[in-house]
Amino acid sequence: MAKQKRDRLDLIYDILTNIRKSNNTIGPTKLQNKSNLSSLMFKDYIEELEQTKLLEKIETPKSAKYTFTLTKKGNQFLDKYKEMKSFVESFGL
Question: What is the rounded distance in angstroms from the CA atom of residue 6 to the CA atom of residue 13?
Fold first, then answer.
């Protein structure tokens, strides 16, 4: 069976999981590479995740650098989505 493209929720799950796996803080370049997204797609997803308060952009004082961190809501999303995936897979879907 051919590998399916990731859908929108899977991409969001992957982005948030990559942040969680990086001790809840990761720079944008590393996150984009780990998420395997084009810069345009990455930018669009990050903007959506910031607007929905699933992640937070933390700017470094006196620098143009920043990192991303999960919010409480982002952690809750990851836990619930993982439960949902397990439930669906338990039916062989």
Answer: 10
Give the number of C-alpha atoms closer than 13 A to the C-alpha of residue 78, restricted to the C-beta side: 19
pTM of the model: 0.88
Distance CA 8, CA 72 (A): 21
How many Å apart are CA 64 and CA 55, to the nearest integer? 19
Q: Closest by alpha carbon to 18, among 5, 39, 32, 8?
A: 32
Contact status, residue 14 vs residue 5, Cβ threshold 8 Å:
no
Which residues of the chain are modeled with pLDDT < 50? 1-2
Architecture in CATH of 8-87: Orthogonal Bundle (1.10)
Task: Tally the C-alpha atoms within 13 A of residue 72's C-alpha that lie toward its C-beta.
Answer: 0
67 — phi, psi (to 5°)?
Answer: -130, 170
Angle at 46 between CA 40 and CA 50, to 5 degrees: 150
